[in-house]
Design a protein that fits this description.
By secondary structure, the chain is α+β, with helices and mostly antiparallel strands. It is built from six helices and twelve strands. It is 29% helix and 26% strand. Strands 3-2-5-6 form a four-stranded antiparallel beta sheet. Strands 7-10-11 form a three-stranded antiparallel beta sheet, with no helix packed on it. Strands 9-8-12 form a three-stranded antiparallel beta sheet, with helices on one face.
């Protein structure tokens, strides 16, 4: 159902031995040009810049509007170069597509880049850093964890079902702690956790206005059922999840 991975072939990469690396190099050159300009204008704040380029294409290899973005982990650079960042994907030509997946399975092409900003010399330099997660092998079909009672397949429906049943679980199991009520404690608790490859909850963390409210939020999350794990091209993967729970006195 998922394999082989969807491949896009850039027009400049048709006759290369490795079209995936060629596509990555093509986008990297655009990023480097933009980042060097930002560095020359001192429009950055971080020593390590991380960029992610994401896009989807239709069956003819044309970029799908609204399904593309370029993200940089530096807010100063993002704000001052918003238009140039968008142009990186908007400027992609129509490409050849191999192994295009039918609906409802949607392949997303994600390319990750790391750059070190070297300030040790008079002329600030930008150096690419290669890491294991920067390898690009083609489009990825990412599926959210499966809440018991939801179906896999259509991504938007699966996400909506997951959110609906998650909110129902919270509402059903919510109990305002008696001591917190008596002390008039209220506010929003942010809960972060991971759903592992087996579909189990792990590494629960909270941030809220008081420990009593955080403990209640943890109790609710621990009552969650076992999920069908998130999938990446059909393989189970661990993913982070975050959700707020609001405690409000009536």
């Amino acid at each position: 159902m998922y394999f082989p991975q969807e491949q896009v072939i850039h027009p400049d990469c048709k006759n290369t031995a490795d079209p995936n690396s060629c596509l990555r190099q093509n986008i990297s050159l655009k990023l480097v040009s933009l980042l060097n300009e930002a560095i020359a204008q001192n429009k950055f704040s971080k020593d390590t810049l991380i960029a992610q380029v994401v896009f989807e294409v239709d069956k003819k290899g044309k970029l799908l509007e609204g399904r593309d973005f370029t993200y940089i982990n530096d807010s100063l650079l993002r704000n001052d170069y918003e238009g140039q960042l968008r142009a990186i994907t908007k400027g992609l030509p129509q490409m050849e597509v191999l192994y295009k997946k039918p609906k409802p399975y949607v392949s997303s092409h994600k390319l990750l880049f790391y750059f070190l900003v070297d300030k040790s010399t008079t002329a600030i330099q930008l150096t690419p850093i290669e890491k294991p997660d920067t390898a690009y092998t083609g489009g990825i079909i990412a599926e959210v964890p499966q809440f018991p009672g939801c179906k896999r397949g259509d991504d938007s429906k699966a996400r909506a079902c997951f959110q609906k049943l998650m909110q129902k679980h919270i509402a059903t199991n919510f109990r305002y702690p008696q001591e917190a009520h008596e002390r008039e404690l209220q506010g929003r608790v942010s809960i972060m956790f991971k759903i592992n490859e087996e579909g189990n909850i792990e590494n629960i963390r909270t941030r809220g206005p008081h420990k009593l409210l955080e403990e209640e939020a943890i109790r609710i999350i621990k009552l969650l059922p076992k999920f069908g794990p998130a999938l990446s091209n059909g393989e189970p993967v661990k993913i982070p999840f975050a959700i707020p729970i609001t405690f409000r006195l009536q």
